[in-house]
Amino acid sequence: MNAHQVLATVAASDFAASSAWYARLFGRVPDCTPDADCAEWQLADCTRVRVRSRDGLAEASRRIGVASLGIIVDDLDGILQDLQGRQIDVPVPQLATHYLRFAPVCDPDGNRVTFVESATA
Description:
- The chain is α/β, with parallel strands linked by helices.
- It has a single domain, classed as 2,3-Dihydroxybiphenyl 1,2-Dioxygenase, domain 1 (Roll).
- It is about 20% helix and about 40% strand.
- It is built from three helices and eight strands, in the order E-H-E-E-E-H-E-H-E-E-E.
- The strands form two sheets. A four-stranded mixed β-sheet has the order 1-4-3-2, covered by helices on one side. A four-stranded mixed β-sheet has the order 5-8-7-6, with helices on one face.
- The longest helix is centred in the first third of the chain and has 12 residues, at about 15-25.
- Mean pLDDT is about 85; it is low at about 60-65.
């Protein structure tokens, strides 16, 4: 498989609260708001995260479980420090292997956003 773009969609029960939380998480307002219940952030050239009201999703999509996003970063400690400054609760980073450190944070709906860093960098 050769993907050209990645789009992760997170369903939010309270769109306003979740949009505000993701704005704090990413440190900026959405890059795009295609409609009243959708906000998108462009994280890399071909990677976007979309927060969408559960009401705006198709019936089948509303029943999907909790989302999980993984974001690979170069400076995990710096990211976590920035997030604390934006009033986001952050855990102490964990060592997954001798090569990977990670720290998960949760949005208002319990969706997990995990920041991952190579411990060898």
